[in-house]
Predict the structure.
Amino acid sequence: MTLKLTLFAPTSDGLAQLARQLPPAEESVGVSSALGCIDDLAAEIERGHPDLVVADLPRLADAELRRIEVALNDSPATSVIMLSPERSPEYLLQVMRSGVREVVPTPLANGELKVAYARQFERLIARRGSARKGRVLAFLPAKGGSGSTFLSTNLAYALASRGQRVALIDLNLHFGDAALFLSEARPATTIADLARDVSRLDPTFLESSMIEVAPNLRVLAAPDTPEGAMDVTPAAVERILAAARERFDFVLLDMSRLLDGAAVRALDQAEALYLTLQLTLPFIHDARRLLALLATLGYARDKLHVIVNRWEKGGEITSGDVQKALGTPVDLEVPNSFAAVAHAINHGVPILKSAPRDPVSKALLELADRLAPQEAGRKRGWFGLPL
Ligand SMILES: Nc1ncnc2c1ncn2[C@@H]1O[C@H](COP(=O)(O)OP(=O)(O)OP(=O)(O)O)[C@@H](O)[C@H]1O
Ligand SMILES: [Mg+2]
C-alpha cells in the first residue's frame, strides 16, 4: 500500500521550494500538495487522511494551532512535520501539543528537513510493516441462490471457532441478508451508517457497529434501504475494509455478483475470490461469464477459487465437468443437505452449532482448516466441535 504524503505551503512558490528540499519521492509514496491558509491545511488532513504532511507555515496564532489540533484528532494516524520561523520554546511546546510531530526551523539549513523527513518516513514504514493485516476473502455467487451467503457466513463461524478473529461484511448492498444467517438480533447499525460517517471510522468504532455473533465473530449488516446502499461509496468501502483488516484476522465479504465500483474496490483488497455454483448448466454458464469478467478486470487466475455447492453423489454433471468448462479446478465440494441447512438458516444459527456432524459442517471445517491450519495438540474449539 502506498504512503500518502501531502506538501503544504501558503503560496505556490513556497510549495515549489518545499518540494525542492525533499528527496525525490519513492514509488511507494503518493504525493499530493495543497496551498492556502490553515483552514485549507486542516480540511486537507480531514479529507485525505495523509500519512505524512510537510507544511511550511508562518508563526501561527492560538486559534490556528487549535484548528490543526482538531484536524489531527480527526486523523490520528497523520504525522506532521512543520517548518516554522518561530522557535521560542513556548511556541514549540504549543505546536507539539497540537499534535505536530516535528518542527524544523526556517530558513532551512544543514539538511535538517531531509533528516526529519527520513526519520518520519522510516517510522511510518515500520508501523505499516508491523500493522496487523487481516486476510480478505470475497464470496461471489455465480447466480442467485447458489449458496454464497450461507457458505461465507458459516465459514466465518468455522474460522472463529478455531480462535481466529473474524469479520463478515455484507457487501450485497441492495439485498444483503447475511446477518440473518448467523443471528436473530436486528442490526442497530449497518454499513450505510458507517459510510455516511466515514471520517469517524476506526477499528474500534467499526467493531462496535457490528453484531456480535460469537466471542470473535462479528457481522456488519447490509443497508436496509435502497438509499442506504447508494451511500456506500467505493471510498467508504476502502476505508471500512482497511479498518476491518487492522482489527480482524479474517475479513470475509459476502458479495452480490454485480461488480460495481464499490465491489471492485473491495475485490482489489481480497487475496482470494470464491465463486459459488451448483451443478446445473445455468450456474456453469453464469460462472463462466463471471470468471471472464473477473479476468477482464485484471484479477489473476490464481486468486479465483471455485466452490461447488449442493454437491450430490452420482449427479449428471460432475466437478470434473465444471473444471473442464471453466478451466479452473474445483476447490471444494459442499454436499447437499437441505434439511440441516434450511433448519440452520431458519433459526439464524450456524450449521456448525445446530448440526456439527452434518457433511456440510465437515466441508466448512475442511476449508477453515486449509485457511487457518490448526496447531497440533489443539483438538477442540467451542462447543467441543471436532476440529
Ligand atoms: N449445501 C446446501 N445444501 C442445501 N441447501 C443449501 C446449501 N447451501 C445453500 N442452500 C440453500 O440455498 C439457499 C440460497 O442460499 P444463499 O442465500 O446463501 O445463496 P446466495 O448465493 O447468497 O444467493 P443471492 O444471490 O440471493 O445472495 C439457502 O436458503 C439454502 O436453503
Ligand atoms: Mg447472498
User: Anything to note?
Assistant: The CA atoms of residues 14 and 329 lie 58 Å apart. The pocket of magnesium ion (ligand 2) is lined by residues 141, 148-149, 172, 254 (CB under 6 Å).
